[in-house]
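Researcher: I'd like a structural prediction for the single chain below. Treat it as a standalone chain; there are no partners to consider.
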Amino acid sequence: MMVLSFARAADGYADALGSRPWACFDVFDTLLRRRADPSAPVRAAVRAVAERAGIADRAAVERERWDAYAELCAAAVAAGDDPETRLDRLAAAWTARLGHPGLADLAEAAELAADEALCFANPVLLTLCRRLREQGKRIAAVSDMYIGGAAVTRLLEANGFGGLVDRVFVSGDVGLQKRSGRLFGHVLDELGIGPQDTVHMGDDPVADWRRPRALGVPAWLVVDRGEVLRRARGSAVETEARRGRQAAFLDHLLRE
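Model: Treating it as a single chain, here is the predicted structure.
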C-alpha cells in the first residue's frame, strides 16, 4: 500500500497489522529524521580527519573515502554478500589510504557524533510505536546502513525509542541489504516468523516496498509530502553546505 503521509500511515497501520505479532519499520527518514542532508555526517568526518592530518584539500580526502568504500563493497560482492561494509572497516581503510591509519577512531567518532546531532524522532511514528507496544506488538527496525546495529540502536534510544524497539537489523552487520531483499529474508529467519507475520513500513520504493512484497511481506510505502518538500529544500541546504555554512550549523549542534 502507498500512503501519502506518515499521519495517514499511522492511522491505518495498526489495523493493517491486525493479529500479526511483529511490526517492522525502516529507520532513517522513517522512524528517525535528519536536520540536514544525509551526507552531512560524512563531511563532518572528512573535516575532522583533514584538520587532524593537516590536509588542506578536503575534496581529495573525501574522494579517498569514497574510493575506500567502493573497494570494500566490491570485496563484499566478490565474497557473495551485498555491496555493503561497516563504518569501522571503512574508517580503517580510508585513513590508511591517506597515510594516517591512527586517525581511524577519530573518523568513526566524528561521523557518529554528527549522526547523533542531526537525527530526531518522527513524532508520529514514535506515538504509533508506543501504541503498538501497549497492544502487545513487538517491533523490529531494519536499515540499509553501514554504521552498524549498535550505533543505530543508540540513535533510536536517544530519540525516545528505547524500550519500544525489540530488534534492530542493519545491513552493515550482516552484509545483506533491504535493497536486494536479502536482509528481509535474514530478518524473517532471525525472528522465526513467516512473511505474513509482519507488515513493513518505509519510504524507499525499492528497499521498503518492492523487495519485501516480492518475498510476500505486506509493505506500506509512505510518500510524505511534507518530507518530500523538506528534502527538496535540502538541495538548497546542500549547496550552502559546500560553501561551509552547514558545517557551522553542525558545529552549533555538536556544542549543544
